[in-house]
Amino acid sequence: MIEVKNVSKSFGKHTVLNDVSASFEKGKVNVIIGASGQGKSVLAKCIVGLHEVDNGHIEFDKRDFVNMPSYERRELRKEIGMLFQGSALFDSMTVEENIMFPLSMFSKFTKKEMLDRVNFCLERVNLAGRNNLFPAECSGGMQKRIAIARAIAMNPKYLFCDEPNSGLDPQTSILIDNLIREITYEFNTTTIVITHDMNSVIEIGDNINFIYEGKNWWQGTSKEIVKTDNPEIVNFVFASEFMKKIRENLRKDL
Amino acid sequence: MKIISQLGKYFMMLWIVFSKPDKFKVFWKRTFEEIQLIGINSLPIVALMSVFMGAVIALQTASNMDTPWLPEYTIGYITRSSTILEFSPTIISLILAGKVGSNVSSEIGMMRVTEQIDALEIMGVNSLTYLVLPKITAAIVFFPILIMFSMGLSILGGWISLIASGLSSTDSYVFGLRSFFKVSDITYALSKTVVFGFLIVSISSFYGYYTRGGALDVGKSSTQAVVSSSIAILLANFFITQMFLLK
């Protein structure tokens, strides 16, 4: 479980996060949504320590991350897997080398054990046999799946996904969403997904956090988001006529 | 103020760079890869520059010696001294600042803007030690070899140009090369090279690592890296010369 307590973050005079508190549960897909520039990515980067918070606490299973010495942070980060928006695969390495990288740095596996693990991860994301391709030779959807394979290579306790569906077609988005959900349940990870994709929010969001004006404006489940009449949420999630109709239909079913 | 702040940031970066690598096996593997990339791949440009600069130094010296009071072996002596003391260590290092510096800065800068460095950090890897330390080690180890190679080719270039133009004989050129030779000149040149190699790679890595933005900013960082490392080479050359030759 990850707990964020009263976190604030400013860049110069611009306050991005203002006293944000949230809890992200283990074994569930926790989704962070919000309009562009509202602080979702900054919150995620604060949680993993890529940005330092100005105030507040972040706890990974009761371990205070903010006041942790750098070497302890580094150790804790070995328990984190992250899927970046642009995949962030190492372009000078093959798919196999990319997935093997964290294993070769931190595990005591033999070469064969590492290769077995790489093949397991590739099979898990339906990319078996693509070991020798370079990232530039893969499509956007494949790159995301390779990044997921790399993220799960070390059996992480915490999985972060920064806009996993950006730039993908609807079918590939569904594939990625399902993969994130399956991995979360299979490995019992604390998963945090930052997304703009409302389909993902409804489909895989066990626990949804709506960030608005630098605050955690609303928190609830995918059923509750359909029921809520909170104007900010409704205007953001069900902005289009199409989504409004879907909401009406969903509300009838609930 | 900005210069002081940048200098502070640079030394803070070096402090982290020189921490213990996460895995020595990976560190050595990366160091050999960097020797290939920034050292061996620079051999052609160094060879080309050295042969032609040596030839020009010898021809210029020979064509300007119109007094009979200067012995013919002076051509060899001046070619050797210019090459060992300044041309090979300093001018070749300035060329390497352009070639290697822009390469290092843009490589690391691109990794920064495509979040590959963030990915390393999230995995728990010390990204500075992983990326920069092998480059610095490779430069410190291989730049002196490149410069010795340059010295040899430059002297060879001088000899070829003199023989081809008929301005001097092999005997007097070789006699000039051997005259008043001091081993300390080589020590001085190689010491300078180690410092220059360190400066080129560390400064370029600094600009690459702290790149913010996109492709345009990677280009700007690359330019800044080349300019700053060239200035650093010239300043270091001045101070090292003061220390070694005027002690």
Give your account of this protein's structure:
The complex is a heterodimer of chains A (254) and B (247). Chain A is α/β, with parallel strands linked by helices and 254 residues long. Chain A has a domain at 2-79 and 156-253: Rossmann fold. Chain A is built from ten helices and ten strands. Chain A has helices at residues 40-48, 70-77, 95-106, 111-124, 140-152, 170-187, 198-204, 222-227, 231-237, 241-253, and strands at 2-11, 14-24, 29-33, 55-60, 63-64, 80-83, 158-162, 190-194, 207-212, 215-220. Chain A has a six-stranded mixed sheet. In chain A, strand 1 (2-11) and strand 2 form a beta hairpin. Chain A is globular and about 55 Å long. Chain B is mainly α and 247 residues long. Chain B has one domain. Helix content of chain B is 84%, strand content 0%. Chain B contains nine helices and no strands. Chain B has helices spanning 2-17, 24-39, 43-64, 74-113, 116-123, 127-165, 170-178, 183-209, 215-245. In chain B, helix 3 packs parallel to helix 6. Chains A and B meet through helix 2, strand 6 and helix 3 of A and helix 5 of B.
Q: What summary fits the major beta sheet of chain B?
A: none
The CATH homology group name of the domain at 2-79 and 156-253 in chain A:
P-loop containing nucleotide triphosphate hydrolases
Pattern of helices and strands of chain B: HHHHHHHHH
- CATH topology call of the domain at 2-79 and 156-253 in chain A: Rossmann fold
Report the oligomer. Answer: heterodimer
Total number of helical segments of chain A? 10
For the record, the count of structural domains of chain B works out to 1
Number of continuous helical runs of chain B: 9
Question: What distinguishing features does this structure have?
Answer:
heterodimer; A: 254 residues; alpha/beta; Rossmann fold; 6-stranded mixed β-sheet; 4-stranded antiparallel β-sheet; 10 helices; 42% helix; globular; B: 247 residues; mainly alpha; 9 helices; 0% strand
